[in-house]
């Protein structure tokens, strides 16, 4: 190839045709270079392998304009490789006998796909929309020895067949790479500005569109519309910080959170988040948090031995009492602020605020009053930090009548 290719480590394997992956899955947000890199790698593959057959598939292809033919043609031109290909109206043929063909999967049958049994590579673009029926027909069809299936998509729902098949239940011999604009060295400043703007005003949409996270059940999200993610500077007008800690068990993280309250807004300024943190390593972890030894840290009472250990290490720390409904009361108090402002450095906190949800009825989709006990370790730290300010709802008891 004439052009000098530059790529990131996420795409290196695409260009190494000797690797024995059956599936190569690239998913994530917009402007992550997925389509560009896959197109370029397939152009190179077709030049190295004479008479190779490359099937470019998608769920719906009403016309050739719906396909990636134009993308491949543009990349061939950008790479200065027009001499090596005959770009036709519905196909691309290499001078060495290689061929790109373009098909829609919706409505195709086992018989209609038989002609592609000899495909060397199948690229399934925009595969978030590919149905389970299409996967069940396509995958057994691509069965030539050494053949592979390349899958690219921007995630939509966690229930989508592609997400279930390849992300949640990853098959053997599968390479999975999650990419987004932050890893794109060629990303335009206009794209960065658009992404960062959305990040400030609507983090849920930002995470879905630009980071490639699956869409959350918006009606079930506890803090939907209540928070933003934005950088801010803390000055004397913020007053003293509050600190809260949640202890990790097994694969749960230890978290330490630093918050401020100002003008009816709750500001989350710092987070520490570590999975598998040993007791003896906790003081060193906490010392990475500015001012932590100068103020009281309020922590989960589930680990009294850890609270006592941290006292012995000269931290100011006390356990937070839990009462019936304390989680709900803590959430209500956080929601009582006009807005929660999460500093852009606090990535885990922002992600938890996006995902923290009520349960839903699997049969009806109705939102239930019960809270899902996950995606809450930073949020629990925030609750503990605010515990002295949280109003406890009175617990009413039925009156006893004596007749």
Written description of the protein model:
- This protein has helices at residues 34-48, 69-78, 110-113, 132-141, 161-168, 189-201, 203-209, 282-286, 304-312, 326-336, 347-355, 377-386, and strands at 23-28, 53-58, 85-87, 92-94, 99-104, 121-124, 148-153, 174-179, 227-229, 242-246, 253-262, 265-275, 297-300, 317-320, 339-342, 358-360, 367-371.
- The protein is an alpha/beta fold and 403 residues long.
- The strands form three sheets. Strands 3-4-5-2-6-7-1-8 form an eight-stranded mixed β-sheet, covered by helices on one side. A seven-stranded mixed β-sheet has the order 9-15-12-11-10-13-14, sandwiched between helices.
- Helix 4 links the parallel strand 6 and strand 7 (148-153).
- Helix 1 (34-48) packs across helix 2 (69-78), helix 6 (189-201) crosses helix 7 (203-209) and helix 10 (326-336) crosses helix 12 (377-386).
- The chain is elongated and about 75 Å long.
Quick rundown:
The protein has 12 helices and 17 strands.
Short descriptors:
alpha/beta; Rossmann fold; Nucleotidyltransferase, domain 5; 2 domains; eight-stranded mixed beta sheet; seven-stranded mixed beta sheet; 12 helices; 17 strands; 28% helix
From the spread of the alpha carbons, the general shape counts as elongated
Radius of gyration: 27 Å
Low-confidence stretches: 394-399
The SSE order reads EHEHEEEHEHEHEHHEEEEHEHEHEHEEH
Total separate domains = 2
At the first level of CATH, the class of the largest domain is Alpha Beta
**How many runs of DSSP E, i.e. beta strands?**
17
The name of the CATH architecture of the largest domain is: 3-Layer(aba) Sandwich
State the helicity in percent bands.
25-40%
Q: What amount of the residues lies in strands? A: 15-25%
Number of helices: 12
Order of strands, main sheet, comes to 3-4-5-2-6-7-1-8
